[in-house]
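Quick check before the chapter quiz. The format below is the same one you will see on the exam, so make sure you can read both the input and the output lines.
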Amino acid sequence: NPYYFNASFQNAQLTTGMGAFMTKQGVKKLYLIGADFEAGYEHTDAAKTGFKGEIVAQQFTPLTQLDFAADIAKIRASGADGVFAFYPGGLGIAFMRQWAQAGLVGKIPVFSNIALTEPTAFQAQGKSVLGTYVSAVYFAGIDNPVNKRFVQDFKTKFGRDPASYAGLAYDAMMLVDSAVKEVKGNVKDQVAFRAALKKANFQSVRGSFAFSSNNHPIQNTYLTVVDERSDGSLFLKATAIISEKAADNFVGKCPLK
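Here is the expected output.
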């Protein structure tokens, strides 16, 4: 549908590059675990892409499950030397707190994306997430003037770093704003408004921004690690770009040109 635009990401795009990174980190035996719904399948499958070692398990747990003791015991017994875990929201808080209670922080590295941990979850997770590797298409540490201003304004108002969805939502608003200006407010001219959206003539907090032929972003995927500031606050520390200016995996299947 030519009227569909996505200013954030397609699920697999968020995790692209993590498999190759885990191999580079020396992970030989990988345990994949995630919530039992579509995003869980897509992210764990994306984490396998580029991984050269052995997949010892790919396990899914119910969305209502908050007790992970049995699952963590399975991970420990599997001999895995790396875990990719996809647990958004409260699931991620519960999983990482129990991971720390099991004494596994610093013993088996955890890899994920911003669904597992980021500024909105840090207070509840505490130091259980220190050292966790997290991929993101947006995080507060992206180094460009537009993002630096956004982060400062956000911290002034809310007292913390913006989480991923804050930056992506801001970009979505700036995208729409740029298109409304382009058509001088005449959004009833749908053809012109759609063309203006496609131009993406705005300054993104992610840096460069453009749409691919299927109206999904062409963008970087970043590798970050949870670190601690001198005041004890946690933040996502920039480590590397693991996928550079890439379209999503499905662009070739879309009939839009």
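If your answer matched, good. The beta strands are 29-35, 54-61, 82-86, 110-113, 133-136, 210-211, 217-228, 234-246.
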